Amino acid sequence: METESEPYVRLASLRQLHQAMADMNTARSLADTLQTVADGVVRALGYELACVNMVRPDGDLVVAAFAGNQAAEALITGRVGSRASWERRLGMGEQWGDLIFISHTEGWVLDDDDVPQWYTEGPEPRFEDEWHPSDRLFAPMYAPRPQGGGTSGELIGVLSVDRPRNGRRPGAWGREALQMYAFQAAIAVSNARLRSNMQRALVRLEREQQALRASEESFRQAFEYAPSGMAIAEMGGDQHGRILRTNDALCRLLGRQASTMRRYSFSDLVHPEDIGTLLRTSAEGGRAELRLGRRDGTYVWVSLRNSVVADAADGPRFLLTHVEDIEERKRRELQLAHRASHDSLTGLPNSAELRSRLAARLCQRPQSTPTEAVVDQLDAAYGHPVLDSGGHTFDFGAGFESDPYGACDHHVHAVAPEDGPEDDGTKGLAVLFCDLDGFKSINDRFGHNAGDAVLIEVARRLGRGVRDGDTVARLGGDEFVILADGLGRADAADLAVRLRNEIIQPIRAEGRAVRVGASFGIGWAHCGMTADEVLKSADERMYVEKRSRPKQHRRAG
């Protein structure tokens, strides 16, 4: 590069500078760009040595490229100088525009810092502007300033040069050329970094897309070929629960085509009794056991597990539903539960189930009528009379006098008709205790098989003789109990007569006709009693009724 001491700048020098700048912007990678920057200083700006120091993410500067001396290049390339040492250098010396020149008369104080540098030998300067081997010239490179930004961008590196070929310190033109070159080099390096980051991002994106495609394919195969049912359904909005996709296993389980399944939501397929369970499960994700409808109108028990899935942008969410057929297990569970609560011979509820159903109707507080003082209290508290339109007080429960408000609940108390010769019209929960007469003699004469046949037939006749909702239970042996709600005294007596008339009809057992009689005791359940107390009361009445009848009338068989 010609200096300003010459009367003009040669056109060839300008061409060299232009070509060096063009080369910087056509390098293929960041490493190529950095090396091109260093080579351009030597080729176009007239310096024998050039070094590019780049700022690392941690702030320190590393020697990233070197040109002009292979030995020096091997010595310092890759070495790191601390940011503090570099800031010290850039903060001292003589400012030549954006350049920093540190004369050999000042630079000796830098000999012991950790900035990588090379040492050149040569004679002492013979005239004022002659270059000394220990002179240092730095061209900081700043990132391009954003539009509307400050005076300079972020420091991205420092370009160091040494040993001008003409042996002189650069003049005005040389300084301007180096400053312009450093400015263009910063742009080229920033662009190269951007391209490098974009290339890495594209490579990473391609890898992620490949992984995503592989994951999607794995999911598709796992979804389609899973041995149990799988479905994807919408979550949220008006289409919540609508089925978007199903696999073959679910279609086979429900006997429906995949195209048909997309017309439904799970709420359309679930058993009406299980709709609440489905809604609770699909709202938050989770699992439940419920029944789904098949195409033929039957229902199948399934274990349904939901997982809430969000897309990559946290956009619309879906329900991934796993449906497992548990019909056999559920059938076994129901059978076990039935066996635990029902008599194995007759299929009727057993003693434990009878007591459970009876206890469910009884509370520990008997019905009581509030006193006039308490009624006055409620009249004042509620602002209206507490008597209904028929003049009857509301049911407040025992203990009302001490807690007139807390004693009120929603339990419908079981009541009993009053004892007396006439029916007072009260409807209650009748408990009919039935004991077979003459059954033991059948067992003794014809064997237990005949006795079992009699018990089975008696159970069938009792079940046929009561209303839907009434309970017929086998208490044990030849004892049966009937729970019939909403009966008055006359109704309960009529029911006992009808059932007795059914039982005494001939029964075929082991190829012969036999007869048994039946004694009934009618008890009444009311709150304040326990289930055992109610059954004991009916049992005692049964024995009273049995003893009141002549023996010949009791015996049948």
Task: Offer a concise description of the structure.
This protein is α+β, with helices and mostly antiparallel strands.
Q: Can you characterise this structure?
A:
- The protein has 557 residues and is an alpha+beta fold.
- The chain folds into three domains: 187 residues, GAF domain (Beta-Lactamase); 107 residues, Beta-Lactamase, CATH 3.30.450; 141 residues, Reverse transcriptase/Diguanylate cyclase domain (Alpha-Beta Plaits, 2-Layer Sandwich).
- It is built from 18 helices and 18 strands.
- The strands form four sheets. The protein has a seven-stranded antiparallel β-sheet with strand order 3-2-1-7-6-5-4. Strands 9-8-12-11-10 form a five-stranded antiparallel β-sheet. It has a four-stranded antiparallel β-sheet with strand order 14-15-13-18, with helices on both faces.
- The longest helix has 53 residues.
- The N terminus is likely disordered.
Properties at a glance:
about 550 residues, about 40% helix, Beta-Lactamase, alpha+beta, 3 domains, Alpha-Beta Plaits, disordered N terminus, 18 helices, 7-stranded antiparallel β-sheet
